[in-house]
Design a protein that fits this description.
Oligomer: heterodimer
Structural class of chain A: mainly alpha
Helix content of chain A: 55-70%
CATH topology of chain A: Four Helix Bundle (Hemerythrin (Met), subunit A)
Largest interface: A-B, 51 and 71 residues
Shape of chain A: globular
Strand content of chain A: under 5%
Structural class of chain B: mainly alpha
CATH class of chain A: Mainly Alpha
Number of strands of chain B: 0
Radius of gyration of chain B: 23 Å
Strand content of chain B: under 5%
Order of helices and strands of chain A: HHHHHH
Radius of gyration of chain A: 23 Å
Mean pLDDT of chain B: 88
Distance between the termini of chain A: 73 Å
Shape of chain B: globular
Largest sheet of chain B: none
């Protein structure tokens, strides 16, 4: 099966590039590996036939966001991180191996698998909710209108926060004449 | 029109925006605040008046609606399954607005003495409060996560708000890393639940596994599914970061110390209460089917939280860290209430809610005093600063005594009744060992609360102490507010009205 092999390829790309993001000593390399990881995720979206999300993943994440990361990294020009202590490397590797093994054990465990009815149609009529821009828009502005509105406020306060924390304030405006409220 | 559009238009018509008027009013006025500051220079006084006035109006209207029975409740979830107004949700909404009013007032006291942006502080507090009020009614994980992230991101900014203090920036960074980590775990848990509960290989898979009701039905049918168990545990871990229960409490001391005092109060009261309400909703709602696994897990966590909070608070000298660590101990006692609710004590929510009210009243009284005693570097509030407070500023000293006494649970103050209610609920749930453990914790807590109070009462020899620590004399407004808080702590200890029934 070609799609199976493609799945393994993109999954491996995502995971290995993800590891390299965490392990890179240089921030630029980490950001570059992040692009690779995003491309892997976009490939997985294509295999799931959600082409719209795949395009968004490339355009927004691999394109805009990582480029922004690179801008900032090059602007502040950080030094390469020092090598961590050997013990902590071994410890982290052991923990990661243990978690992975535990995770596979969970997935292999005999689960309650009694198919009674297939509910695929009840997912918005059998179509993946984000298959095309049209379906995506329809769902976003009907079913998910409330979270969408809240997300607007989330982005607003995030932007406001950047301004508030990065702005310098002159102490001239410190003390107002006292008095009660 | 095909069948799918039919479904979507039904979803659209279930959006009763009018039912969310308190949140919408708060958000709109928060935006108006920014406009006022932009258009009218020198509008400092007005900013506070607008934000306080708006919130007091919403608070009063909500209480009037609750008393008059005009606040709508619904048996089915609205907003395409995202919102279900309930009586307990309305109570929490009122609670959050009330806390927000007090935080804005403390914020005024803090900002008055510092060269920082003003309008944005009230704006953020109001938006975060509106998101919390929304969270109190949410029954859908997509809306849940978005609203929770709005709260969390608001708090990242509020914690780092004192940008001239390295403590505040450090606290902001630490809180952001911890918050990001906990949000990641929470999201992973939600995704696992979604994937497991929507899978056609389970009994009765859900059409919309994000919806609490449908998810709960799937979980009740498949309680042993490992993906569901892990997903539920991860969601609970994500929320436990918010309430600061052991072993997710390690961010608390540094963040509480570094954050501006009003933000610390906001974190300690509103954020923690929100976490407990979400925990209550999830554990007695969708996760009810996982009782056999979750009751022991939360039970062990409760023991550790009470023990750790009380022991760690003993060694602290910075009063903000004392409040942080004792807050962990309070989280442990509230977890006892959650356990009682899980084991079917039907009035456990009233006990938890009453505890939250008394905790809020006492904490805000103490934080109000802290705002007046705090030195210019807000993070360095040591116990020594309180020497001679009772003699030099008897009003502040008295409020501090009432607040700390209520937190410690000294009769006849409100904190005593609240602790007693939780203990009775735990007794009815047959959690006898836990009851004994809580009692030991309460006795230990008296030690560190009274250590602080002793500093306020003692008056060391001037040659040892040097100059007394400068204290900002409270204005008429803050005197009135602190008096109301202290009085409420006393009155609620003697008469609970309908709050416990």
């Amino acid at each position: 099966m070609v799609t199976d092999w493609l799945f393994y390829f993109f999954a491996a790309l995502t995971v290995i590039a993800g590891f390299l993001v965490a392990l890179s000593r240089s921030p630029v390399n980490a950001a570059m590996n992040m692009i690779l990881s995003f491309i892997g995720i976009a490939g997985l979206f294509v295999l799931l036939e959600t082409f719209f999300l795949a395009v968004l993943q490339i355009l927004v994440y691999a394109g805009a966001i990582v480029v922004l990361f690179l801008f900032i990294i090059m602007l502040i020009d950080p030094e390469r991180l020092p090598k961590p202590h050997k013990l902590s490397t071994i410890g982290s590797a052991l923990v990661a191996a243990g978690l992975t093994a535990g995770w596979f054990a969970v997935l292999q465990a005999p689960t309650v698998a009694l198919p009674t009815k297939v509910a695929a149609e009840s997912f918005t009529g059998g179509r993946a909710p984000a298959a095309t821009a049209r379906v995506f828009g329809e769902v976003l502005f009907s079913q998910y209108l409330l979270p969408f509105e809240v997300a607007g406020f989330l982005l607003l306060i995030a932007m406001l926060g950047v301004i508030v924390i990065s702005k310098h304030y002159r102490p001239a405006t410190t003390r107002k004449e006292g008095g009660s409220v | 029109m095909d069948a799918q559009l039919q479904i979507l238009s039904e979803f659209s018509s279930s959006h009763h925006w009018m039912w969310l008027w308190p949140e919408i009013v708060l958000a709109a006025l928060a935006l108006a605040l920014l406009a006022v500051e932009l258009l009218l220079p020198k509008s400092d006084r007005w900013l506070l008046r607008i934000s306080l006035g708006a919130q007091v109006a919403v608070f009063a209207a909500l209480i009037a609606g609750l008393v008059g029975g005009t606040l709508p409740t619904s048996d089915v979830a609205l907003f395409a399954g995202a919102i279900q107004p309930t009586l307990s949700g309305h109570l929490m909404r009122i609670f959050f607005v009330g806390c927000s009013i007090l935080v804005c007032f403390l914020g005024y006291l803090y900002l008055e003495r510092r060269p920082l942006a003003r309008a944005e502080y009230y704006h953020l507090v109001m938006i975060v409060t509106a998101a919390m009020m929304l969270l109190a009614q949410i029954t859908h994980f997509v809306a849940f996560f978005v609203a929770l992230e709005t709260v969390t991101i608001g708090f990242y900014i509020l914690v780092a708000y004192g940008r001239n203090s390295s403590y505040s920036l450090e606290a902001g960074l630490k809180y952001m890393i911890m918050g990001g980590f906990s949000s990641g775990l929470l999201l992973f848990g939600i995704v696992l639940l979604y994937g497991a509960a929507g899978s056609p290989t389970l009994i009765g898979p859900a059409g919309d596994p994000f919806q609490f009701g449908q998810l709960g039905a799937v979980i009740a049918e498949n309680p042993g599914n490992p993906l569901i168990v892990i997903g539920a545990l991860l969601v609970i871990v994500g929320i436990c970061f918010k309430i600061g229960s052991f072993p997710f409490q390690y961010w608390i001391p540094d963040v509480y110390q570094g954050a501006p005092t009003p933000t610390t109060a906001f974190l300690a009261v509103s954020s923690k209460s929100m976490g407990f309400y979400l925990l209550y909703v999830l554990l007695t709602g969708p996760f009810l089917g996982l009782q056999s696994i979750l009751v022991p897990v939360i039970g062990i966590m409760t023991y550790c939280t009470i023990a750790f909070g009380n022991i760690a608070a003993l060694g602290q000298n910075n009063v903000k860290r004392v409040i942080g660590m004792s807050g962990v101990a309070h989280a442990g006692i509230l977890l006892v209430g959650i356990l009682a609710a899980m084991r079917g004590v039907d009035w456990a929510f009233q006990a938890i809610f009453f505890y939250l009210i008394t905790y809020a009243l006492a904490s805000f009284a103490v934080f109000g005093v802290m705002c007046h005693v705090a030195p210019d570097e807000d993070a360095n509030q040591e116990r020594e600063h309180y020497f001679g407070l009772m003699q030099n500023h008897p009003f502040l000293g008295g409020v501090l005594a009432v607040g700390l006494g209520s937190l410690a649970g000294i009769p006849p103050l409100a904190g005593f009744v609240a602790k007693a209610a939780i203990i009775v609920a735990a007794f009815q749930a047959k959690l006898y060992l836990l009851v004994a453990f809580v009692l030991v914790g309460v006795v230990v807590s008296i030690f560190y609360y009274f250590g602080w109070l002793r500093a306020a009462v003692t008056n060391p020899h001037p040659e040892i102490q040097g100059e007394p620590h400068p204290v900002v004399a409270p204005s008429v407004g803050s005197r009135a507010l602190l008096a109301v808080l202290a009085l409420a702590s006393v009155v609620l200890g003697l008469y609970q009205g309908g709050l416990l029934s």
